[in-house]
Each structure stands twice: as structure tokens, then as C-alpha cells.
TrEMBL record:
This is FAM3 metabolism regulating signaling molecule C. Its main location: secreted. Keywords: Disulfide bond, Lectin, Secreted, Signal. It comes from the Eukaryota. InterPro entries: FAM3 (IPR039220), ILEI/PANDER_dom (IPR039477), ILEI_FAM3C (IPR039475).
Length: 227
């Protein structure tokens, strides 16, 4: 009886040990699989992060060199979507900010620091050009000036206003007409014509929208003003 009891005990212990061994092996396999999955996911995530294209200020296509300010801007779309002006990753004017309007939209930026100075819009369809002229005359030397049209930016422009904008470096302002789309970046005291300007004429045969041409966009790097 004692021998039979001892044999049963040995069998029970053996079964227990066998069961424990099988369970531990299965658990170890699952752990290895889970760890392998985690490591594989981590490697894939790291690879995805390394291949993700970098984002530059204002969403421009490449980084600006040292001592330059990044900017990106767009004219308005017909009379529905307002223009947008961004400098150094700071959206200065947009429909979302609710600080744009029909006519010519203007943002002023400090040419040395890149800090925003002022934003205004002037209605060149139903408004008066006189306040616009006074504003242009008040701009200080060394100021970066960014302009974009919305709806119509030309009807009320006169020769004096056009000359003041031309003095900021614009070439196209003399030809800006009714409902043309135009964006421009220049500066007060600039000695040459600005390379930053886009202009599309209002032409019923080529207009993207009924009565208005397509949106014009522009991006670039503005040299910092040096003393």
C-alpha cells in the first residue's frame, strides 16, 4: 500500500512538473513573439520617422539660409477666400484670423528682427485710396512689406499709389488691373526691383473662377536687413 501510494505521488509530481514545463515553454514562446512584434513595430516606426520629410517654416519647400526670413503667401480666391500671409511660421493675415478684406491686404515686418509690425487692408473697389496713400508714406525704412489682393485691388488705385508701391520694389503694380490676382514682397528703401512678385491678369478666356483668375502663391527667403 505504501509502495502504491508512493508511486501515485511520484506520478502526480511528474505530471505537475510536466504541466509546469509545457506551460512555461508556451508562455516563453508567446513572450518572445510579443517582444519580437514590439521590436518590429518600433523599428518600423523609427524608419517611418526617419523618412518623413522635414517641415520648414510657413510650410515652404526648403529651409532658408542663415540671416533670412521664411515667408509664404497667397492671394485671395475670387471673392470667397481671403489671402494668407505667413512670415517665420507666424500667420500674419488670413481668413481664419478674420483680418483680411476686399482690396489690397498689407503686412509690415521689421526687416532686422522679423517681428510683425502692422496688418491692414484697403478697399480698392468701394473705398478711398487716400488712406492707403498715407499708410504707404508712413512706412519706415528697413520695413519688409507684403501685399496680396482679394476680389479687386486695382479700381481705386491712382498713379501716386502705384508709384509708392513701385518704390517698394514692385514691377507689376503699373499693370495691375480690375480683379487681377497679385502678391508682392518688397521693402521700404529697397534699391532694386524685388524678385518676389506674382501677377495673373483677369481674363475671361483663362479665368479659373467665373470673373476671377486662379489664386497666385509665392514663397521664399527674405534677406535680413543689415546695419
Amino acid at each position: 500500500m505504501r509502495i502504491a501510494g508512493a508511486a501515485k505521488l511520484v506520478v502526480v509530481i511528474a505530471i505537475f512538473l510536466l504541466t509546469f514545463y509545457v506551460i512555461s515553454q508556451v508562455f516563453e514562446i508567446k513572450m518572445d513573439a510579443n517582444l519580437g512584434h514590439i521590436f518590429a513595430r518600433s523599428a518600423l516606426d523609427a524608419a517611418a520617422r526617419s523618412t518623413k520629410p522635414p517641415r520648414y517654416k510657413c510650410g515652404i519647400s526648403k529651409a532658408c539660409p542663415e540671416k533670412h526670413f521664411a515667408f509664404k503667401m497667397a492671394s485671395g480666391a475670387a471673392n470667397v477666400v481671403g489671402p494668407k500671409i505667413c512670415v517665420e511660421d507666424n500667420v500674419l493675415m488670413s481668413g481664419v484670423k478674420n483680418n483680411v478684406g476686399r482690396g489690397i491686404n498689407v503686412a509690415l515686418v521689421n526687416g532686422k528682427t522679423g517681428e510683425p509690425l502692422d496688418t491692414k487692408f484697403f478697399d480698392m473697389w468701394g473705398g478711398d485710396v487716400a488712406p492707403f496713400i498715407e499708410f504707404l508714406k508712413s512706412i519706415q525704412d528697413g520695413t519688409i512689406v507684403l501685399m496680396g489682393t482679394y476680389d479687386d485691388g486695382a479700381t481705386k488705385l491712382n498713379e501716386e499709389a502705384r508709384k509708392l508701391i513701385a518704390d517698394l520694389g514692385s514691377t507689376s503694380i503699373t499693370n495691375l488691373g480690375f480683379r487681377d490676382n497679385w502678391v508682392f514682397c518688397g521693402g521700404k528703401g529697397i534699391k532694386t526691383k524685388s524678385p518676389f512678385e506674382q501677377h495673373i491678369k483677369n481674363n475671361k478666356d483663362t479665368n479659373k473662377y467665373e470673373g476671377w483668375p486662379e489664386v497666385v502663391e509665392m514663397e521664399g527667403c527674405i534677406p535680413q536687413k543689415q546695419d
